[in-house]
Design a protein that fits this description.
By secondary structure, the protein is of the alpha/beta class. It is built from twelve helices and 15 strands. The chain has helices at 12-22, 40-55, 100-116, 142-147, 153-158, 167-173, 200-203, 242-259, 296-316, 336-349, 363-367, 394-412, and strands at 59-62, 68-72, 82-86, 124-128, 189-195, 208-214, 216-225, 229-230, 265-274, 280-281, 284-293, 320-329, 332-333, 353-358, 373-378. The chain binds glyoxylic acid and manganese (II) ion (2 copies). Glyoxylic acid is lined by residues 133, 140, 360-361. Belongs to the peptidase M20 family. Pfam families: M20_dimer, Peptidase_M20.
Length: 416
């Protein structure tokens, strides 16, 4: 076994071309993408990725959550595979790189190995996890959560989008329901390369984030029940105003997050008013609270305080309040050996680097439950993500993919 030498590099131009090619599938309205999970655009993106994997000589497996696993065999038939993955689905107003960079960099390292005639002892499996974003079906990282045994398959199939369509039906409809049992695969290691989605690496002028941890999360879906009534003729003292309760709860979430500093965030990104008419007080308001921090005790404390204070706010207004947790994972510590491998790859390649905690959730968080796992990050312009204007440079993309290449080769062990 020989380790990767510092002259081994991926083909950055080919990686960038593939990113731009994938970005043509499910275009957004402002230069980014709307390739939400299990839509026709998702199917088109999957088909394109499949054709690239097959052209690179890989074998494709698909599990019952629709997750795609493209395998390049190793030389040792008994060696467990090294997995490299992320996601091709996007937010409704998503960028071109969130998730896509990780999947296509996985493909690029295989293409580079083919060019360079490199074989590895362990197989390498490039993975496209279904529904990482959770934009259409909550929670995020749904398929990797089922894979890790944290989310039941039937629960996943029953998740509904805002139009009432179920995950299970939509997976069948786009033709990507596979036959593999979810989670049956065993991993030697899991790597995920992702844009930072925050401002730290760019501000610190570092090319590589060595990801040591990921913060934990709760998504709480709040349903407030008021009374529909005329906005003009109903006196103020006779209103049962679910919209007002929501506004007060939003303010309270902000206060809880600010009181939990440093290292905690909280906010609301989705809300539905019923009937959503200008001159009707809403009878029903459904919205989702997203809270995150790397500190488990703090995370659970924030949740408890939000639930208690939301109930008080609603009660004072005579509004009904039900809160359902619809997404959760504990803070994650990534595997120290793999983390060190990422750091030493950055050193060997001469890229500047620093340790970083992931602010966003990733499939790596669930993979870390079943295998040694870690991540590589590159900067993104202005820290902007979940926005069509999300941007990275070809040089940043290449540097992170080079580091991924080296860390994966070291783990998969170059044969001969
Ligand atoms: C996934 O994109 C998340 O919400 O962190
Ligand atoms: Mn992502
Ligand atoms: Mn995302």
């Amino acid at each position: 076994m020989t380790g990767p030498t510092d002259n081994l590099r991926i083909n950055g131009e080919r990686l960038w071309d593939s990113l731009m090619e994938m970005a043509k599938v499910g275009p957004g309205i402002a230069g980014g993408n709307n390739r939400q999970t299990l839509t026709d655009s998702d199917r088109e993106g999957r088909d394109l990725f499949k054709s690239w994997c097959e052209a690179a000589g890989m074998m494709l497996g698909v599990d019952k959550m629709g997750t795609m696993f493209a395998t390049r065999p190793g030389t040792d038939p008994d060696a467990l595979p090294v997995y490299v993955g992320s996601h091709l689905d996007t937010q409704p107003t998503g960028g071109k790189y969130d998730g896509v960079l990780g999947v296509l960099s996985g493909l690029e390292i295989i293409r580079s190995m083919n060019d360079l005639g490199i074989r590895t002892k362990h197989p390498i499996v490039v993975t496209n996890w279904t529904n990482e974003e959770g934009a259409r079906f909550a929670p995020a990282m749904l398929a990797s959560g089922v894979f890790a045994g944290a989310i039941p398959l039937e629960y996943a199939y029953d998740r509904k989008d805002p139009d009432g369509k179920s995950f299970g039906d939509e997976l069948k409809r786009i033709g990507w329901l596979g036959d593999e049992e979810v989670g049956a695969r065993k991993m030697h290691a899991y790597f995920e390369y992702h844009i930072e989605q925050g401002p730290i690496l760019e501000a610190e002028a570092k090319q590589i984030g060595v990801v040591t941890h990921c913060q934990g999360l709760w998504w709480l879906e709040v349903t407030l029940t008021g009374r529909e009534a005329h906005t003009g003729s109903t006196p103020m003292n006779l209103r049962v105003n679910a919209g007002l309760a929501m506004a007060r709860i939003l303010e309270m979430v902000q206060t809880v997050a600010m009181d939990s500093q440093p290292g905690a965030v909280g906010g609301v990104g989705q809300m539905f008013f019923t009937p959503n008419s200008r001159n009707v007080l809403p009878g029903k308001v459904v919205f989702s609270i997203d809270i995150r921090t790397p500190d488990l005790a703090k995370l659970n404390g924030m949740r408890a305080r939000i639930e208690a204070e939301a109930a008080e706010i609603a009660e004072a207004l005579g509004v009904g309040c039900a809160i359902e947790p619809v997404g959760h994972f504990d803070p994650v510590t990534f595997d120290p050996t793999l983390v060190e491998r990422v750091r030493s790859a950055a050193e060997r390649l001469g890229y500047s680097h620093m340790n970083i905690i992931s602010g966003a959730g990733h499939d790596a968080c669930w993979a870390a439950k079943v295998a040694p796992a870690t991540m590589v990050m590159c900067p993104c312009v202005g820290g902007l993500s979940h926005n069509e204007a999300e941007e990275i440079s070809p040089e940043w993309a290449t540097a992170g993919a080079d580091v991924l290449f080296h860390a994966v080769l070291e783990t998969a062990e170059i044969a001969g």
